[in-house]
Amino acid sequence: MSGHIEVIACLRVRISNVKQVIGIRTSKQNVSKLTSSEVAEQSRQQIAEKLNHMTLIDQDNGEELWERCKIIINSVAVWVLSIMGPAHKGVWFGVECQATTEDKNKAYRKMQQVYGTRGLIEEYKEKRSKEKTTHKRKKKEWMNVELENMELLRKQHECRKFYEAINMARKQFKPRVHICRNEDGTLINNE
Q1: Is 89 part of a structural domain of the chain?
Q2: Model's pTM, two decimal places?
Q3: Roughly what angle, to the nearest 10 degrees, separates helices 159-170 and 118-155?
Q4: What range defines the domain where residue 131 resides?
């Protein structure tokens, strides 16, 4: 007989969610303000002033000094540069689109109340068609303006802004989905 014992293990693989903090988003500073010489000089002066007031202790090592410098730089960046808001996509849905949608909704409610006579159904179909064409036209106009702006950025050799605009145009809307399990173990989402 050998002294070895057979061991059976069951491993379960899952994605680690240690770094996920729900509800907190990292904020970005508006670095494009640094192209202005006045703002750049103001931030330099603020950082220099705060670094001059920083006291050095003999026990400080390089890591602790860097952490204190990083805190100073970040505080000046928040104060001078301000925090950048979320990326904003251009909105094509304007007053005209809102008005046609309201007309279509009124026709739909009217059709539902009277149990859909032929005349009301035809009126609703016309308004729905008008709404669709208005939305398509407005979105196409907006997209043409966006493409012209991108072309202008490309001609001016503003590579960073150009590629940011391209990526914003390519991104689709992704709604957030919240899923959890109930007592039975079945998945429940936010619908």
Answers
A1: no
A2: 0.51
A3: 160
A4: 95-189
Tokens of 5: 């014992």
Structure tokens given for 4: 């070895």
Question: 52 and 23, same structural domain?
Answer: yes
User: 40: which residues sit within 8 A by CB, 6+ positions away?
Assistant: 34
Q: What type of residue is 44? A: R
> What number of other Cβ atoms are within 10 A of residue 169's Cβ?
13
90 assigned to some structural domain:
no
Number of helical H runs and strand E runs in the chain: 5, 2
Backbone angles phi, psi at 188, to 5 degrees: -125, 130
Residue 104 neighbours by CB distance under 10 Å: 21
Below-70 pLDDT ranges, the chain:
1-3, 15-26, 58-60, 86-90, 173, 190-191
* Helix locations, 114-158, DSSP H: 118-155
Number of domains the chain is built from: 2
Q: How many Å apart are CA 44 and CA 40, to the nearest integer?
A: 6
Instruction: State the sign of the Cα–Cα–Cα–Cα dihedral 75, 76, 82, 86.
Output: negative
